[in-house]
Amino acid sequence: MPRLAAVVLVVRDLDRALVLYEQGLGFQRLEDASDVPSLGARHVVLRADNCLVELLEPHDEGKPPGLFLQARGEGVFSLALEVADPVEASAQLAARFVDARGAADDPQRWYVSPADAHGLLLQVSPATSA
User: Fold this and answer.
1) Measured between alpha carbons, how far is 58 from 36 in angstroms, rounded to an integer?
2) Which parts of the chain have pLDDT scores under 70?
3) How far apart are CA 120 and CA 88, in angstroms?
4) Of 17, 19, 47, 114, which alpha carbon lies 20 to 30 A from 30's?
């Protein structure tokens, strides 16, 4: 059965979002805020009981999180899912004309674009024991 591994949220103000999720709701911060140049954003990863929550604060309006914020405002940017057999899942989607784009470094990790995934970027990887 698939497992929700992480939810990625785009936020306007990372510090303000941390007040809600970390201080108010009790999510556990796994790392200090850091820059992710490939996404043009600062981020923090938080742990919930059943998944991770990544908060992204875009600073480059030309990269996907920044484009998302401009077009839609704050909200759910992507979901990370774990499946038992990502290669088979990718083949099943391809047979149904859904484009699953593989990560360059790992054929078991791939993405489904928001156009095919009803507005969300889906990140798919092998199941882990969590």
Assistant:
1) 9
2) 103-104, 129-130
3) 21
4) 114
Residue-range domains of the chain with CATH? 1-82 (3.10.180.10), 84-117 (no CATH)
Both tokens of 12, joined, read 């306007």
- pLDDT one-digit tens code per residue, 79-112: 999 999 998 898 888 888 888 887 667 778 899 9
Percentage helix, strand, coil for the chain under 3-state DSSP, each rounded to 5:
25, 40, 35
Q: What phi and psi, each to the nearest 5 degrees, are found at residue 11? A: -130, 155
Q: Which helix (H) or strand (E) covers residue 88, if one does?
A: helix 86-95
Q: Which two tokens stand for residue 71?
A: 């077009």
